[in-house]
Design a protein that fits this description.
The chain is mainly alpha-helical. The protein is about 55% helix and about 5% strand. About 40% of the residues are buried. The structure holds tryptophanyl-5'AMP. Tryptophanyl-5'AMP (TYM) binds near residues 7, 22 and 182.
Length: about 325
């Protein structure tokens, strides 16, 4: 199977544990078993009004380092930056001409972002079309993502279907791959998903120091009541979800039994989560430091782009012929 996925170089380019557990950990697992193509989607990052030229350059590099530190292996996967393969934007235009305007107005992410901004740029509206182009350019069959991307994936499938219907069978309809950890919530506000845009107290960066992580885990929102059999509040459920991702099942079970019996001390739950989370992140942080000292990121991305471009050019030759632009 050919697998494709992407991630935005926003802010400093540092990954948070939502990205890691929701997507990147699965990206790493899929390597070797399938043909894997992973893209740093810098064109998408331009839709954020906060993105500056220098910030974007740095974030792209940081994100590449972070992905390599997490275990993306350029020998097994194609890792590259979207803007190094201009075919993404060429296909984006063509797909825009089969996408439904009505569908695009119904995208939740667009509606939420547009409601917050005073000035809404056109890129934000076209964002899902570019995302569809990313995937279809490689005729990818499956896309490992967190839950927040499912609507965009559905739109990519619709776009593939419309293109095939109008111009003839060309693209497979890409299937999402989601699994455990697909929706990690903010520690400070467990009703919203973990993301960097809400501010530093809402997420844990994979490169954060021990003290910062301890403080954030300790101050994670829980609840006050401890009635036996009481339903779990979103904050506590999120801590359990994270613990499941990093700790042995027996330990999680023991904490679950304590919770059901109404005798769980959140302090203990948080301490265990901190310890096991650090055990997961420490090797990534060590590897990050090694890679940063070595400084070969640009070469890795350039080699990845050359490989990606060969596939992209073949697809575009076929697409141009299909639509009559050859
Ligand atoms: P982005 O950059 O916001 O996030 C990258 C990946 O991390 C997942 N993720 C989460 N998973 C669980 N819990 C969370 N709190 C959490 N936050 C983020 C995301 O679901 C995603 O898998 N539009 C995409 C980028 C993109 C793309 C693509 C993805 C562009 N083209 C083509 C797949 C295929 C995005 O903004 O992801």
């Amino acid at each position: 199977m050919r697998i494709f996925s992407g991630i935005q170089p926003t802010g400093t380019g540092e990954l948070h544990i939502g990205n890691y557990f929701g997507a990147i950990r699965r990206w790493v697992k899929l390597q070797g078993e399938h043909e894997t193509i992973y893209c740093i989607v810098d064109y998408h990052a331009l839709t954020s009004e906060d993105t500056t030229a220098d910030g974007l350059r740095k974030a792209r590099r940081e994100l590449a380092l972070g992905l390599l530190a997490c275990g993306i292996d350029p020998e097994k996967s194609i890792l590259y930056a979207q803007s190094d393969v201009p075919e993404h934007t060429e296909l984006c235009w063509i797909l825009g001409c089969v996408a439904s305007y009505g569908d695009l107005t119904r995208m939740t992410q667009f509606k939420e972002k547009a409601a917050k901004e005073e000035f809404v740029n056109g890129g934000l509206f076209y964002y899902p079309v570019l995302q569809a182009a990313d995937i279809l350019l490689y005729k990818a069959e499956a896309v490992p993502v967190g839950e927040d991307q499912l609507q965009h994936l559905e739109e990519a499938r619709r776009i593939a279907r419309r293109f095939n219907f109008r111009f003839g069978e060309t693209f497979p309809e890409p299937e999402p791959i989601v699994g455990e950890g697909a929706r990690i919530m903010s520690l400070a506000d467990p009703e919203r998903k973990m993301s960097k845009s809400a501010g530093p107290e809402h997420y844990i960066g994979i490169l954060e120091g021990e003290e910062g992580i301890r403080r954030k885990v300790r101050s994670a929102v829980t609840d006050v009541g401890l009635t036996p059999g009481q339903a779990m509040s979103p904050g506590v459920a999120n801590l359990f979800l994270l613990l499941e991702l990093v700790a042995p099942p027996e330990l999680v079970d023991a904490f679950r039994r304590d919770h059901a019996a109404g005798k769980l001390l959140y302090r203990d739950l948080k301490e265990a989560l901190f310890t096991h989370l650090m055990a997961t992140l420490r090797p990534i942080q060590d590897r990050y430091r090694e890679l940063a000292a070595r400084g070969e990121v640009e070469e890795v991305l350039a080699a990845g782009a050359a490989r990606a471009r060969r596939i992209a050019q073949a697809t575009m030759a076929e697409v141009r012929e299909r639509v009559g632009l050859d």
